[in-house]
Amino acid sequence: MLTLASKLKRDDGVRGPRASNPASDSTRRVSVRDKLLVKGTCKVNFPDPNKLHYFQLTVIPDEGYYQGGKFQFEIEVPDAYNMVPPKVKCLTRIWHPNITETGEICLSLLREHSIDGTGWAPTRTLKDVVWGLNSLFTVERNCTKVALFYGVEDCDSLPQPLLLRRKVRRKQRKDLLNFDDPLNIEAAEHHLRDKEDFRNKVEDYIKRYAR
Questions:
Q1: Longest C-alpha distance within the chain, in Å?
Q2: Which one is catalytic: 42, 90, 106, 155?
Q3: Per-residue pLDDT of the chain in tens (211 residues, 90 and over written 9)
């Protein structure tokens, strides 16, 4: 079983002891960052340049209820990755049916031991996680528009998490902004009861916490 910890240990053994090369470390950070970016709606930052297993993701939605906000997530990659998912928390207070005000996130691909095929698997990547977090700000729409949003030609070219969910559940694409399977039940009920007031509260939260 190959995990992040075992891979790093193996690589260190192959290379042997060596002094840290600032230029090389910087190149690695840029490479990792570029691989994680999703069009212009996501930005990746490494608070500690020596800890590539911990980074922050900022999602800047360009449409929908959350347009204009900047929502920050912290992502920590455990030693047992990729057998287990990374740990993710939302650092920005938000009024969202799938994110609590204290930062817990309902994202199916981060679930271990999922029975519907949409949870975490060793084949998942960090980019899948970034795609998934970005999709939490995308209103459900027909498949063609989803494909256009992600800059691919058709639905079969969608990122793996969305493609798998399309095959498992075509009519309801989980992990898009979802009011039917909420983590923040109060927010979901608010939207059901008064969509305009829900929008006003979202915008108020953006002004107060997400600028």
A1: 62
A2: 106
A3: 545 555 545 555 555 555 555 555 555 554 555 555 556 788 999 999 888 899 999 999 988 899 999 999 999 999 999 899 999 999 999 999 999 999 999 988 898 876 666 789 898 888 889 989 998 998 654 455 555 555 555 555 555 555 544 443 443 344 567 787 789 999 999 999 999 999 999 999 999 999 9
Report yes or no: 56 and 91 within 8 Å, Cβ to Cβ: yes
CA atoms of 53 and 109, how far apart (whole Å): 19
**Which residues share a beta bridge with 126?**
none
106 is catalytic: yes
Claim: this prediction has a pTM higher than 0.85: no
